[in-house]
Fold this protein.
Amino acid sequence: MSGLRLLAGPDLRSGAEAFADHTRRLGTPSIGGRPLVETLVRSGLGGRGGASFPVGLKWRAVAAAASKGPAVVIVNGAEGEPQSHKDRLLMATRPHLILDGAFLAARTLRAAQVVLYIGEEHKTAWAAMSRALAERPHAERRITRMAGAPNRYVAGESSAAVHLVGAGVATPTTTPPYPRERGVAAVPTLVQNVETLAHIALIARYGDAWYRSVGRRGAAGTVLLTIAGGVKSPGVLEVEAGTTIEETVAAAGGVSEPAAAVLLGGYFGVWLPAAEAWDVPLDGEGLRGRGLALGCGVIGVLPATRCGVCDTARIMRYLAEESSAQCGPCFFGLRALSDACSRLAERGTNRHDIARLQRWAGEVPGRGACKHPDGAVMFLRSALSTFSDQFSSHPAHWRQQPA
Amino acid sequence: MTKGSPRTHGVASEFVGQKSELHMTIDRIKCDGHGLCAELLPELIRLDDWGYPIFAPGPIPERLAPLAQRAVATCPVLALALRRTQVSR
């Protein structure tokens, strides 16, 4: 695994890079304040937590909202997506890139408080970030604290992060108002994914033209991906944006057996038939043009020996259980969708459940405070289309035990 | 020009070249599925299989604005609100 940018430097197996080594290798950021915001706008960098929101625009919004008082910066390392490992790997190996980005944000947005919001079960990452924070100057440590993100899928959603930091409850809240306008203690709050902050740390050293100087097929920069499922060397890779799924899978050692489908973007993503997936370039902008999204950067390869219906039923069960049970259409709707999927998987195809899935999939999206129901239904719809043959002729038993 | 009825809280646009649209907004976390809104405004609101409201797409026709106002006022958990937005032609 040779890192291009974020993962460049010492061997990742040697753990977290110390502050002194980090500073010796990379120097200190040279761009800050207003020019940094404009540099980020020009870079085109999008958020890497899942929504790909343009970073420069988010910083502008927080800066404008914070003109009357101090802001809050939340460093989002919750990484609740079960298959994703890129955020915890980055926290465990390059914590100072993340902290550089966080304190650049704090200085630029005049934040009085920085919160490191890290998944409670990511023990190695938590320890590395904690040690790294202790190495930072007093002025940075003084305004920073750590907060544990519960091991729940929705805990990483930005309003849930704000809710946890402000009130101790990691459930999403109704938006608007968005955290960038009214977040922790009602002050403008920047919630930024750890990978995004690490890119910012480098852009603040080398500029936006440098950021855009790598990338393939018209895309800019690099992305961290987690390659999971039927590949020979699953794990985290940094690739140039615009690299195709086929090239990425090849970099992970290639498929371990013939593939049937690819799950792009994790449980909030979409299934693509393998034949259609290979040529897809991995780049936020390019994917949006195809109605797809990079999400949290998980590429899951489904071997042809596994059953797409059973895997879909298992993931729908998980997503239904991970509803924070605040909004009826999400809590009851995802449960009903999941039950129908399980019936199809366990007892075999029946047209009534297929019809229910299609009707509910049309009714549930857009009717929650957060995007959890929307993501779950988008995932299900892609399964109904990618595995349409299997859904219409599924035998009456689980073909595989849960993995 | 506005086609607003004078009974709709008097915020219909007076500005030439602009018209306003009335939309219903809902706080999904507050909503507990009591279903009174669908009883009062079946023209625009139906309930899903679990009793939670589904709104017809688009703005609320002005002739239904008084009923919409009543649905908002009747919601037991105050989950509904009306919002009037200016739409430039």
